[in-house]
Automatic annotation (TrEMBL), chains A, B:
It comes from Thiomonas delicata (Thiomonas cuprina). Belongs to the pterin-4-alpha-carbinolamine dehydratase family. The keyword Lyase applies. GO terms for molecular function: 4-alpha-hydroxytetrahydrobiopterin dehydratase activity. Its EC number is 4.2.1.96. It is an enzyme of class 4 (lyase). GO terms for biological process: tetrahydrobiopterin biosynthetic process. The lineage of its organism: Bacteria, Pseudomonadati, Pseudomonadota, Betaproteobacteria, Burkholderiales. The keyword Lyase applies. This is 4a-hydroxytetrahydrobiopterin dehydratase.
Length: 88, 88
């Protein structure tokens, strides 16, 4: 970094992807969450945050390398979306 | 309601209880979430919101009757706390 920033450290946050999944009933929300847990095991990674109530699940993903989204992140996101479609 | 409030409607939010549960590893977080799901089935109710990442779970409960906390709400909260203690 430049001399002008001496004494400062970079604290960049990784880029994130957010999506809200809405469901009609808690049973559907629960099925999605269970499938998402299994998917996390399969990928060996976990969303940065999952925020849910009875009929919604908000998912925040961050780039796996902490810096930029790569094809593997897009695959993970797409697989999560597919789980929600299965439940419809 | 008084005449001064004609045209207005009450939009009270139910009282809520919040607690953050922190864990050292994702496996513990996951075990807590799984146990919490089972507890929700047992009680036939669900927290207003659950917000979790790899090593924390934030739980928000609302009064079951939407108006005031009753002993049943305290039992539900205490049982959730007990789940976290089991995992330690």
């Amino acid at each position: 970094m430049s001399d002008a920033l001496q004494g400062w450290e970079r604290r960049d946050k990784p880029p994130t992807l957010f999506r809200r999944f809405a469901f009609e009933r808690y049973a559907q929300t629960r099925a999605f969450l269970d499938a998402l847990s299994a998917l996390c095991d399969e990928f060996g990674r976990h969303p940065q945050n999952i925020n849910f109530g009875t009929t919604y699940v908000n998912v925040t993903l961050e780039a796996a390398d902490g810096q930029a989204f790569a094809p593997q992140d897009e695959v993970f996101a797409a697989r999560i979306s597919a789980l929600a479609e299965q439940g419809e």
